[in-house]
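Technical annex, item 7. During the second reporting period the consortium partners agreed on a shared format for inverse folding records so that results from different sites could be compared directly. Each record opens with the tokenized structure and is followed by the designed sequence. A conforming record, contributed by the partner at site C, is shown below for reference.
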């Protein structure tokens, strides 16, 4: 059964087109804009922290992409799929938080103000 999944995954070309929008797509751009907007209302140190966080994310993403074959062979297909689902849930949680923040800004009564 594992060989069936592995052979299907190696021929799946949809991974690359899906990875690009996740890294440099509208979600990443929106996240950067929102975080920088929130940081500008704080201190210059907060802006530096956001920029450092973006830099760390870029380095980690590069490392993960560069060594993805090794990482997948070490953790296995089942664990890879579990991590993939957990990251999807994390992405959904971030999206929900953005919607909540937007609703609070659009309708101040929702935040008690």
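Designed sequence (site C submission):
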């Amino acid at each position: 059964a594992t060989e069936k999944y592995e052979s299907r995954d190696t021929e799946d070309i949809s991974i690359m087109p899906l990875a690009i929008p996740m890294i440099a797509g509208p979600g990443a751009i929106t996240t950067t804009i929102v975080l920088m907007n929130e940081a500008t209302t704080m201190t210059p140190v907060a802006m530096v922290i956001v920029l450092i966080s973006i830099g760390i994310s870029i380095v980690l993403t590069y490392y993960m992409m560069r060594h993805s074959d090794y990482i997948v062979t070490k953790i296995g297909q089942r664990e890879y799929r579990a991590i993939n689902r957990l990251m999807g849930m994390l992405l959904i949680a971030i999206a929900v938080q953005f919607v909540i923040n937007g609703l609070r800004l659009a309708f101040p009564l929702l935040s008690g103000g």
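The first helix runs from residue 2 to 10. The helical segments are 2-10, 15-24, 26-40, 44-66, 68-75, 77-106. All partners now use this format for quarterly exchanges.
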